[in-house]
Amino acid sequence: MSAALERLAELLPPERLLVRPVELAAYESDALTAFRTRPLAVVMPETAEEVIAIVRLCHELALPFVARGSGTSLSGGSLPIADGIVIALNRLNRILKLDPAQRIAVVQPGVINTQVTTAAAPFGLHYAPDPSSQTICTIGGNVAFNSGGAHCLKYGMTSNHVLGIKAVLGTGEVVEWGGGSRERLGPDWGGLFVGNEGLFGIALEITLQLLPKAECFHTVLAGYRTLEQAGDAVSAVIASGLLPGAIEIMDALALEAAVAAVHAEYPPGCEAVLIVELEGPREVVAIERERLDAILAASAPVEMRPARDADERMAIWKGRKSAFSAVGRLSPDFIVQDGVVPRRKLGEALRRIADMSRETNIRVANVFHAGDGNLHPLILFDGREAGALHRAEALAGRILKMCVEMGGSITGEHGIGVEKRDFLGDMFTPDEIDCMQRLRAAFDPRGISNPGKMFPGKEAPALSHVGLHPLEKAGVISRE
Amino acid sequence: MISPASLTELRDAVLSAPRVIAVGAETKPRLSAVDAVKISTRQLRGITEYDPSEFTFTALAGTPVREIISALAEQGQYLPFDPLLVEAGSTIGGVVTSGLSGPGRFRFGGVRDFILGVRFVDGMGRLLRLGGKVVKNAAGFDVPKFLVGSLGRFGVIGEVTFKVFPKPAAMITLSLPYSAETMARIANSRFEAAALDVLPGGEIMLVKLNGPGAALEVLAREIGGQTIDNTIWDEIRETPWSYKTDITPDQISAFKAAHVSCGGSMAFAHNLPARGMTLRGDAPLWIGGRPRFAIEAAVKQALDPLQRFPSLDD
Fold this sequence. Notes:
The complex is a heterodimer. Chain A is of the alpha+beta class.
């Protein structure tokens, strides 16, 4: 046993210090299954004090660590490091406080996203960020990667809902920023911490704001002959002055997948389906739905299907949220991309993606958050074919570069992780990357907190066969 | 006082003196009352990009918020967090560094929740762009958020990009007697109030409702109270408060003399509170101290190694 493991064994009982290859196997990868690394050990702390002690030991020994929740990162954010440990935070899974009067919840990092909403529901409250893996992903992971979801245009990302953070930094220091108030004084430290991709340290307690549940929803599914028509409909909705909670588009290939996977039903003969959802007090929705329906009716849809009740609404969302894993039915392997373009360039972006798809003879399905220009091209390939992964990755890279050229971003909600670190330089200048590296060094001078993520130039981890995450295969999670 | 007229000149200005601080219209004078050469942003003025269909705009730091609000209004859009001291001339850069939001913070969040990207000069004189120009972006560390409330102590902001929303069709303001129970009832309800404030004295509560007029009338009847003139929000916005404190709803009764905003998350006062931040006058910047962590000095060192900008304690 190495010296590091001996020291860890002083902090944790043997059943919470995993070192045998068979035990480590489950932690070798996250939802970016193309990458796989076996860590030295996995530790399973049960308290914040244990996490602090572990991080301080890592600091002393210069032992790299990767914090991990449910391992649903699509950018390889929780990919282990061969000479380092994985700190599995799943046992820090308590909701420490739920205060309906202040509309806040204080949670540990291992709490599952939907558990917050479930706990808040009896008080008529909910936690807004809803990544599609929300039934399994943890708040700690959401905080590290500033996770999004389908309602970001109106409600923002995870960061917009985090009021306070207690964290242990890569220096071993324990900090507490913000708290129960929506407002704070001085620099927004919590805002800087959210989305750090694990490079600053580990969140131990997170104070979340809760919002009243919307009383009423109006969800419409509209089918179009062409993607362009669906895109034009989005522009018309945006120009109308309405602020829908969600605006989503699925293209023909994504629809085909959803039909195959969850027996979703869509209007026949459509190249694209648009989903728009309004929400609010019933009196407000009653007025706004008339406007929305009129705008959509004027956008030449093949068919419009407003959800008549909660079940029909759920069915619409089920088709949408299952689309990613459903694509697994069409292809043994696929890459999920996460670029952002200015909304007015959505049509152009989709045309160019279609051109690239034809040119490379690689099928691409598109599912996207049309309201905020967040594209999720799903690049289909067969990993058993020699060079197929490489060709798919090359296409994914071209799409990301296109997003930057159009004035957008290489990631809307999945983060840079290991997946997109080579593209950071397409978005930021060397000085800007240096600025971020200096910040990283301030929080983690020894470079032990999730090294190898976000910044380019580190040795590439081993590639392996790509496929669905085991949990995706089991239908437990899906990708946004 | 140096008044750069371009971002390149802003960079030169930062490097021109051993200690500098940026100022806008100085509507919150205490925040920049430090011993340093002042860099005025008054010539860094104008909206540089605005496409209403994107729900975003980009403006130079010295652009008066008033100009931005009117450009947005022409396109039926607005900044939901209600920037303060608009008529007094506050600039968008000042809004960011001061981190001040108004009553509208209640529904959709504050300055921090609408800032998307920033171009700023760090202490080494480097002009850097962090964050993005699109409504959704998760690339890189969220330095734009960090600069909200940073009081120019970590960098000088040259240009900012914000998210905006379509302006609601109508507004109704209700006045009703304050009680913690009534406030909680409205805050946690289906009404989706846009703002929820308590006037100084702690007796009267204001509720702002935004949306289609016909619907608001129904909601207003259900909430109760008296409909009053919407201009009260302009008065609140333009009041030159001296102090700001971040509070929680259970502390409202301890801030009776103050104007309590954002459902009990902010208190603005003319009289010295037990804790908070000073916006004008001679009181210490931080009243009752502030939390301190070693990481603050390390981040200061990372962004401003020569201490070209004052510290948060200056």
